[in-house]
Specification:
The complex is a heterodimer of chains A (271) and B (388). Chain A is an alpha/beta fold and 271 residues long. Chain A contains 8 helices and 9 strands. Chain A folds into 2 domains: 107 residues, ATPase, nucleotide binding domain (Nucleotidyltransferase, domain 5, 2-Layer Sandwich), CATH 3.30.420; 145 residues, 2-Layer Sandwich (Nucleotidyltransferase, domain 5). Helix content of chain A is 40%, strand content 19%. In chain A, strand 2 and strand 3 form a beta hairpin. In chain A, helix 3 packs parallel to helix 5. Chain B is of the alpha/beta class. Chain B has a domain of 141 residues: Rossmann fold (3-Layer(aba) Sandwich), CATH 3.40.50. The chains are: A alpha/beta (271), B alpha/beta (388). The interface between A and B is medium-sized, with 26 and 24 residues.
Chain lengths: 271, 388
């Protein structure tokens, strides 16, 4: 595959952050960008793309194709194509771990379980309901209640000695449970592990509906938390693949699929 | 990579909200300005030239969209009747059709036929005129019959305006509508040629504007938009090319049309607002104007599910359109409970499969206001074609 020296960008405009992955002609990642969400989606997309271009030592004119994904994928007017999160995540995960058959993606607002065929084609998928109980936004709010940094949740969870049970299926009620656990003196570590267990169990339920089959790849921002990864592996009873930058997998998948489209266009194949 | 987008078309910006306004503000303003009457025309096709020639403003009635709640019409029509029929009646019940001095209905389907009589029964003070369109397009007597019928309609319309149009009046109005339709054809051609320059949501807004504006006023607006869209420096997006059919009568919400485009489709041809651009070429103005209109309807008009013509199967017309536009796929965007459209879908589907043209069936209602499901269906369809 040759992209004639042109760069391809994948932009994942998510609920909490926007991410960019820039691929070169050989399909190597040459730049990334990430920024916290703000109402100006278009400006945000430009900024993360500019960061990735800068990291690559390139200029915006070198970007031949832009593929977007995520919640705000339609809000990037300079895109060539938008791709659903499902297809982008599957493409990215299968690229990083070609033996992947099952993908769990827990982002800030959505959780998705995918059954993936060879080459990253999606056989089946399920997403969480609109309730945030099963997604990273819940963990973020819990961190605020517990007065700890979101980035510290992963290591705190690993120090737990008696995981507490968070039973509610609703994020609002779960927060009430957390407050109760705090009031009876439970340690932050044990509560955080309970949160991770709760998220892992919800992820497992989604995965069951598409069929759990190794290899399993865990992606999305929540996969950055080591305690969350351990909770998921214990719930599933098997190890899972975790990429070095799990939060960038959707952007990577968008870039890879964008690159595929650019090559087809250059070969004169329209659709 | 160019990180710029082009400016919106001024006419589209001006009319974006007006086209959905069932208070018909521009019609009211036209009536105040001219002191003349307005006539509402139910889709699909209406002999608007005659209304215009009688000194009145022909206005397209395209239901209520998602603007009003159904409170009265549900007790007059069954639950399996399409939305546009019920919402048009509802508009009358809530006095939204007050700007119209008469209403025109046509023999396009059973619910539309019944709407004419239900409307007349419930609102006897507002004249409901029924146009009997020729059913046998190939009959040797069809043109003569329809010309006769148009003269009868002209007399009825003349009774509303107080002026039965002369042949010269009708010829003048044909000239005006020819010009307007010609601009619409130009815009459709531009979109098919360079779809990145003119979105279908924009084109729809322009065409919809022409359904409630005097053609003498809408033609310059269309011409101006054509010039602006032509000169746009648009970077094409990576989308599949589609032809959309099935929305010839009840109209999908503008957001839905935009959503289909945003989901990864360039729409190259469609049958939105079909009746207002039905004629493929200008109607001749060098003879009997009624006969010219009749012949244009019989022999010079676009395919329509409400126009039964065995000489040219509609499915063949759809396949030809897909081929001519180099479309990757066809989207059938059909109104719920639309019998003519759904009958045709069975024929379209068979023809498209025989030709190996991918297709997607979508169903809409004018009153819908959430589009997530349809967008997901379209995105999935697009991705299935892009990433094989």
């Amino acid at each position: 595959m040759n992209v004639d020296g042109s760069l391809v960008a994948g932009l994942d405009v998510g609920a909490r952050t926007a991410k960019a992955v820039l691929l070169d002609a050989e399909g190597r990642t040459v730049g990334t960008g990430i920024a916290r969400m703000r109402p100006d989606f278009t400006g945000l997309a430009r900024d993360v793309l500019a960061a990735a271009v800068k990291e690559a030592g390139a200029s915006p004119d070198d970007v031949a194709y832009v593929a977007t994904t995520g919640l705000g994928r339609y809000n990037v007017p300079f895109r060539d194509l938008q791709i659903t999160d499902i297809t982008a995540v599957a493409g990215g995960a299968a690229h990083l771990f070609p033996g992947t058959h099952c993908v769990l993606d827990i982002g800030a607002q959505s959780t998705r379980a995918l059954h993936v065929l060879e080459g990253g084609r999606v056989k089946e998928f399920r997403t969480n309901d609109k309730c945030a109980a099963g997604a990273g936004g819940f963990a973020e709010r819990a961190a605020r209640y517990l007065e700890v940094k979101l980035d510290d949740l992963g290591t705190l969870s690993l120090k737990a000695d008696s995981a507490q049970v968070i039973s509610s299926v609703c994020a609002v009620f779960a927060e009430s449970e957390i407050i109760n656990l705090v009031s009876v003196g439970q340690s932050v570590e044990n509560i955080v592990r309970g949160i991770h267990d709760s998220l892992a169990q919800r992820g497992q339920q989604l995965m069951k509906r598409v069929g759990i089959e190794p290899e399993i790849t865990f992606v999305g921002g929540m996969a950055l938390q080591a305690g969350m990864v351990r909770a998921l592996e214990q719930v599933l009873g098997q190890s899972v693949n975790v990429p070095e930058r799990p939060e960038l997998v959707a952007a990577l998948g968008a870039a890879l699929l964008g690159r595929q489209r650019l090559v087809r266009q250059q070969e004169g194949i329209a659709a | 990579m160019t990180l710029t987008t082009f400016a919106p078309l001024p006419v589209v910006e001006e009319y974006r909200e007006i086209v959905e306004d069932r208070g018909y503000p521009t019609v009211r303003e036209w009536k105040r300005r001219t002191g003349r009457a307005a006539v509402g025309s139910f889709p699909v096709y209406s002999p608007v030239e005659i209304t215009h020639a009688a000194g009145m403003l022909p206005v397209g009635l395209f239901g209520a969209g998602n603007q009003i709640e159904m409170a009265h019409a549900d007790s007059r029509f069954q639950s399996f009747i399409c939305s546009i029929v019920k919402s048009t009646l509802e508009l009358a019940f809530v006095d939204k059709l007050a700007p119209f001095d008469a209403l025109l209905f046509h023999s396009i389907c059973d619910p539309a036929r019944n709407l004419a009589s239900v409307m007349a029964r419930n609102f006897p003070e507002r004249r409901a005129i029924y146009v009997h369109l020729p059913q046998n397009m190939a009959s040797s007597g069809a043109a003569e019959y329809y010309a006769y019928e148009l003269r009868r309609v002209a007399a009825e319309l003349g009774a509303v305006s107080g002026r039965v149009p002369s042949d010269e009046d009708v010829l003048e109005s044909i000239v005006a509508f020819n010009a307007m339709r010609s601009r619409l054809r130009d815009l459709y051609a531009l979109r098919a040629e360079r779809p990145a320059n003119l979105s279908t949501a924009e084109l729809y807004t322009l065409a919809r504007m022409a359904t409630f504006t005097d053609p003498l006023e809408s033609e310059p607006l269309l011409a101006d938009s054509l010039r602006s869209a032509t000169t746009r420096d648009a970077r094409p997006k990576d989308r599949i090319r589609v032809v959309v059919v099935g929305s010839f009568c009840e109209q999908p919400p503008l957001e839905l049309i935009a959503g289909i485009e945003e989901s990864g489709c360039y729409i190259l041809d469609d049958d939105f607002l079909l009746g207002w651009r039905l004629f493929r070429t200008d109607v001749p103005v060098d003879g009997d104007p009624y006969l010219a209109l009749a012949r244009a309807y019989l022999d010079g008009s676009l395919h329509a599910s409400t126009k039964h013509d065995l000489r040219v199967p509609r499915a063949a017309g759809l396949v030809a359109s897909a081929r001519a536009n180099r479309a990757d796929a066809v989207i059938f965007l059909g109104a719920k409970f639309c019998e003519p459209g759904l009958f045709d879908y069975a024929l379209y589907r068979r023809a498209l499969e025989q030709e190996g043209i991918p297709h997607l069936f979508l169903e809409f209602e004018e009153k819908m206001w959430m589009y997530d499901r349809i967008r997901t269906e379209v995105e999935t369809f697009v991705e299935s074609m892009l990433f094989v």
